[in-house]
Amino acid sequence: MTVRASTPDRGPAPRPGREPARQRVLRAARQALRVLAVELGTPTEPGTPLLGSVRSPWLRRLPYVVAFGFAVSLLPTSINVLGNDYGLEGGLVGALATAQTVPLLLAVTRPLQAWWVIFAADVLGAVALIGADGVAGRAWPWPPMEIVGYLALMLALSLRERRRTLTAVWLTTGVAGLLSQVFTPDRSNNTWVLMFVLTGVVLMMGATLRERGDAQRKLIEQETISEAERARRTLLEERTRIARELHDVVAHHMSVITVQAASAPYRISGLPGEAEEEFGAIAATARESLAEMRRLLGVLRSEEAEQQGGPEKTPQPGIGMLAKLVEGTVRAGVPVELALPEEPVALEPAVDLSAYRIVQEALANVVRHAPGAPTRVSVTVAADGARLTVLIVNSAPSAPSAPLETTGTGHGLIGMRERVRLVDGSLDTGPLPDGGFRVAARLPLAPPPSQASPLSTTKDAHSV
């Protein structure tokens, strides 16, 4: 007979590579403590005062005044309560009261560092109160004055630190209160639950206010950036438009030069050979310049113009077409009176075009913002014959009506200034006492040579 020894059943063997539950819990706890230590030890913007970015100097000083008021009021109260009511010794009372209240002044610029000092002082105070004679029947571990000071600190902390740090502070406060209940379960007036709840409420309210303020500031910054970008885009578009128009003006003169230089040998008899070669070189150079400008014009023209059949070839307008412009404005419901010089004025194309565009933009603004307002347009030449004055004045509408646009961006004025600056003129705009508006442009009859030459015009157009 064979007897077999039996071994007790120890259950299934653990799977290889599988970590025991206890080790997983310990590792997770260590990871949580590491994250907690990082959050509690990394302040946000240390040294920056609360409300330091506001414009009002009184609001910037407000956190200092509030912190000073709490510190001054809580320090003698803490000394009196801890010494007389709880029965602690004098030296310990002074040290604890100072550590629990004076760091509130630090909370204005470094609230997380102030929390470390005050929280450690509160915990040491709770430990010291365990054996005190007067603690029976009184609040413990957090006396009332400690709760008030701690909540003031939480408000400063919530206005500065991120949510993860606030959560770490809140949980640390709850753990400290829970441990006090575990080690001294016989205390009837335990205030750790009250402290834990009030701390969470204050931290949540402060964090909500701070995030709302941050969102509003970001929105204002974004609106400011968007408005600046719109103004910049309008400026670039107006410069591009000016460059296209100047190209048309200069291209006309270049075409005249080309034709005159090429036809000179046929129109003038007896030219020497050298003169014919010189005229031929001038014509060739003018053709190259004109071809280069046409290639540049293809870049400056909008896609819409190309889809409509290629580049525009109509002549650029001038003050001679103001009567037609005024007629169209009158049909739009704006009574306009036009006054032009009695004698024809010889203007450079750039000046003539700029004067027309300024009047055009000014009348468009009247139609948009003051429909029905009586308007006067006058074009006069100075007594010395050096400058042309373009004046557009509209009064308040006699029968008030709703404007087509209630807010103005000022982008039309940007275009006017660009055109005036192009010919080295000056522009004066502004509202009138009766509710109207005035636009006065003073343009030289001949623009500066540096801006009237084909070469400089091509360079300006290329840079745009």
From TrEMBL:
Q: What are the TM regions of this chain, as residue ranges?
A: 62-82, 88-108, 115-136, 142-159, 166-184, 190-209
> Reaction catalysed?
ATP + protein L-histidine = ADP + protein N-phospho-L-histidine
- What region holds the Histidine kinase/HSP90-like ATPase domain? 354-446
Q: What does the UniProt keyword field contain?
A: ATP-binding, Kinase, Membrane, Nucleotide-binding, Phosphoprotein, Transferase, Transmembrane, Transmembrane helix, Two-component regulatory system
Boundaries of every Signal transduction histidine kinase subgroup 3 dimerisation and phosphoacceptor domain copy: 238-303
Output one GO MF annotation.
ATP binding
Q: Where is this region: Disordered?
A: 1-22, 444-464
Q: Which InterPro entries match?
A: HATPase_C_sf (IPR036890), HATPase_dom (IPR003594), Sensor_HK_TwoCompSys (IPR050482), Sig_transdc_His_kin_sub3_dim/P (IPR011712)
E.C. number, please? Answer: 2.7.13.3
A Pfam family: HisKA_3
One Gene Ontology cellular component? membrane
Instruction: Please state what the protein is called.
Output: histidine kinase
